[in-house]
Amino acid sequence: MRKETCGWLGIFCILALWIWGVVYFALDVKKELFKAMASIERLQDNNSRLQYELSGVAAKAEQIKSSIAHLKSSIPPKTVVVNRDGCVPEECLARALLIVQDLRRTFALGAMTSDSVSVVKPVLTALNDQGIDDSLRVIEKFHNRKGYRELREEFYSIRNELNFGPQGAMWQLVSKWVSVKDRNSQIWRDYVDLENLMRAGDWEGTLEFGKSSTLSAVPRVKRWLQDLEFVLEIEAHLFVIYDKLVERVHKNPEGI
């Protein structure tokens, strides 16, 4: 009788271990599936935003080409002067405008480098515009740092490092296999609000809200906000240069 009891007890222990192994495996698979779904969602979001940005760039390029044609047609034949680059002054200025627009596009896509800035620098410095020179000095500090695409990807990776769940040793053990989120915690609500602003493309609102939220006390988020502030500064100075070039084109200047 004792041997039979021990035998059944052994079978029960083996069965319990087997069930625990199956549960552990299922929870682990569930966790990996959630990660894969989140990655797919981020890729879809990035792709849709990229298509939107590219369509806007194409429309602006057509507008600039139209402005070039209008400027060339408005110049009397006897007053056309060809400069050292082999083009009329207005066309050279429009060419600079196209280069800066392309620089803004590459920056938005996270592809701008210090080499890209070096290429456009001679054209811009030849304009002898103090405002453009000041903005150019700020842009030269970029040195291949992050763009909006990299900031968006880093933001989602930060979520995995933040503790949104209840405290305690038991919850910490369970959270290894199951994602436990306390959706009533302030840090979780702030993260969701910050994510919504970022998804909407309101980067200035994202920075302002992030600095005033509970997330600003998190070291990783604080560094992320500093990077975002720098990116916004670069974008603002790129716009200053672009706006000044457009203004000079409209005034029909004497050229470079």
| Main β-sheet description | none
What is the overall number of helices?
A: 9
| Principal-axis shape | elongated
Order of helices and strands: HHHHHHHHH
The overall strand count is: 0
Helix content bin: over 70%
Overall residue-averaged pLDDT value: 73
The end-to-end span amounts to: 104 Å
**Alpha carbon gyration radius:** 29 Å
Which structural class is indicated by helix and strand composition? mainly alpha
Strand fraction band?
Answer: under 5%
Unreliable stretches: 77-88, 165-182
Keywords: Membrane, Transmembrane, Transmembrane helix
What topology does this entry show?
Elements lengths: L1 H73 L14 H20 L5 H12 L4 H10 L8 H12 L9 H6 L11 H14 L3 H10 L6 H32 L6
Helix pairs in contact: 1-2, 2-3, 2-9, 3-4, 4-9, 5-9, 7-8, 8-9
Question: What report would you give on this structure?
Answer:
The chain is mainly alpha-helical and 256 residues long. The protein has a domain at 89-163 and 183-251. Helix content is 74%, strand content 0%. It contains nine helices and no strands. Mean pLDDT is 73; it is low at 77-88 and 165-182. Keywords: Membrane, Transmembrane, Transmembrane helix. The chain crosses the membrane at residues 6-27.
Question: Gist?
Answer:
The chain has helices at 2-74, 89-108, 114-125, 130-139, 148-159, 169-174, 186-199, 203-212, 219-250. With 256 residues, it is an all-alpha fold.
